[in-house]
Amino acid sequence: MAQGDLFRPAIADLVPYEPGKPVEEVQRELGLDRVVKLASNEGQFGPFPAAVEALERSVRELNRYPDGGMYRLTTALAERHGVEPERVAIAAGADAVIMYLSLAALDPGDEIVCGWPSFPSYVIDAIKMGATPVRVPLRDLTYDLEALLAAVTPQTKIVFVANPNNPTGTMVGRAELDRYFDAVPEHVLTVLDEAYFEYVDEPDYPDAIEEYLKRDGRRVLCLRTFSKIYGLAGLRVGYGVGPVDVVAAIRKVRNAFDVSQPAQDAALASLGETEELARRRAATAEARARLEAVCSRLPVEICPRPVANFVYVDCGREVAPLFDALLREGVIVRPLGPFGAPAAMRVTVGEPEENDLFGEALERCLTAAVER
Questions:
Q1: Domain for residue 150, yes or no?
Q2: Consecutive 10-residue runs of the chain (372 residues): their mean pLDDT?
Q3: Which domain holds residue 343?
Q4: 293 and 235 in a common domain
């Protein structure tokens, strides 16, 4: 075998994920006193006090491997959602559930369908397996479910619906999803990615676990995460609730011990904090409106009616130079080229002062770009 034959052809054109530099390193390199990070859709609130206490207890047992079956957390999530434990798949973030599902389900020649721009892992994980990602353009920056259905073929195994969509922050409502599920072929597994579920306070936004998986018995895998509003992004805990056979397949390919014991314990301790979740949801909505107002005063277009914890900003030009200019102003945002939107950036909702600092920095950078 020649040296060049070692790697699978499917990964030849993949580009490794390039993480942003730590805030401290950006400060050191650019000589900045302060850097505001609004790039990663992290919740602006930290872990719940009960989660912090659970972490403090867990660190005393770091010489032990975690519970590989995640029994306590699986049982608690099953009870929370009113399903059997066999319907719950936990992994190191909802992103990992997507990866394991792709590993379990996709072969060369298979297809997945998703909206675009959207969460890149749907596409990347399909390509890793040699499958074909079919990207369907959004309609008004929102998932077009009719167009998704039209893109389904006999080779389609999975349809991904990000609701709300990352990076545009838009949602599809109950009536649209009802029509979609009435029409989607039986051979297709639908993945409803609800990573931002807890931020949404719209009456038309359905709870997919309750309404489609449990009540209607649809073939759907619903994704949730502790990384956002729960404040546990640094621990990486996400899960899916879905059909027994889908969960069993994910468990077959999941890495052993991929969720640490401190992460399991912190996630478990975070369940049941309904009043604090409501407070965080309201505070995020207020800060999001402030961020929208800041952007509305600038020569950019923002996606209307966002419902998650970020705002999609279309600058009408390649944003890479703006990203670099903002970095020198001490503001880190997410340029959306990898998401399929090279003229846009995603800005996470921060504290009110951080949102104002972003607006002021962006105004200076846009003015400087015009003058050049």
A1: yes
A2: 74 78 76 86 93 94 94 98 98 97 97 96 96 97 98 98 97 97 97 97 96 94 97 96 98 95 97 92 95 92 95 92 92 89 94 91 84 56
A3: 20-46+274-371
A4: no
**DSSP designation for 209:** I
Q: What's the pLDDT score for residue 370? A: 57
CB distance 50 to 56 below 8 Å: no
Q: What is the CB neighbour count within 10 angstroms for residue 339?
A: 21
Are 112 and 130 in contact by the 8 Å Cβ rule? The answer is no
End-to-end CA distance of the chain: 54
pTM recorded for the entire structure: 0.94
Q: Answer whether residue 5 is part of any domain.
A: no
Determine the pLDDT at residue 136: 98
Phi and psi, residue 193, nearest 5°? -85, 105
Question: How many domains is the chain partitioned into structurally?
Answer: 2
Work out the burial of residue 63: count CB atoms within 10 Å of its CB; fewer than 13 is exposed, 13-18 middle, 19 or more buried. exposed
Question: Do residue 220 and residue 342 come from a single domain?
Answer: no
pLDDT for the residue 15: 79
Between β-strands 220-225 and 189-193, what pairing exists: parallel, antiparallel or unpaired? parallel
- Residue 100 CA to residue 92 CA, distance in Å, equals 10
Residue of 371, 300, 285 whose CA lies nearest to 333:
300
Examine residue 85 and state whether it is found in any structural domain, yes or no.
Answer: yes
Q: Quick one: pLDDT at residue 28?
A: 76
User: What does the pLDDT read at residue 372?
Assistant: 56
Angle (deg, nearest 10), helices 352-371 and 320-328: 120
Cα 92 to Cα 65, 158, 371: the distances in Å are: 15, 21, 46
Among 218, 251, 270, which residue terminates a domain?
270
Same domain, 95 and 200: yes
The residues that bridge with 88 in the sheet, in sequence order, are 241
Residue 119, amino acid: F
